[in-house]
Specification:
By secondary structure, the chain is mainly α. It has helices spanning 4-14, 28-45, 58-87, 98-122. The chain has 4 helices and no strands.
């Protein structure tokens, strides 16, 4: 038997309900929230490993970390949307299967490694 909250979430995402879906019910929001919290902390944890960051004024370092965090949220949402295309539904994250979950992880890693390489090696030269 299906859980009522899962059915409601699926109905909202798939458009099966007669009233308009609330933006707050979008599956992208938890992905964005979790991604923001995780990446914001990560940006500050890895801060000492970057050359010149210790010399930056405090507010400039915060703005740089915030900018990187928003980029990471964009990566997570891009990975989510590509996984949603593969699953052919946006609520795949409620009951993830291997294929969309693998796409989500692989796309996230490829985007992260690619952009980190670009910003640390190519744009610095």
């Amino acid at each position: 038997m299906e859980d009522t909250s899962e059915k409601m979430a699926r109905d909202v995402v798939s458009g099966d309900r007669s009233r308009p879906a609330s933006i707050l019910a979008a599956p992208e929001l938890p992905v964005a929230y979790f991604s923001f919290a995780l990446h914001f902390v990560w940006e500050f944890v890895q801060l000492p490993t970057y050359t010149g960051m210790a010399e930056l004024p405090h507010w400039e370092a915060i703005k740089l970390c915030m900018s990187a965090t928003f980029g990471d949220v964009g990566f997570a949402l891009t990975a989510f949307w590509l996984a949603s295309l593969a699953a052919q539904r946006r609520d795949w994250i409620l009951r993830p299967t291997r294929f969309p979950a693998a796409i989500f992880v692989v796309v996230g890693i490829v985007l992260t490694v690619g952009f980190e390489y670009y910003y640390t090696n190519i744009s610095q030269g």
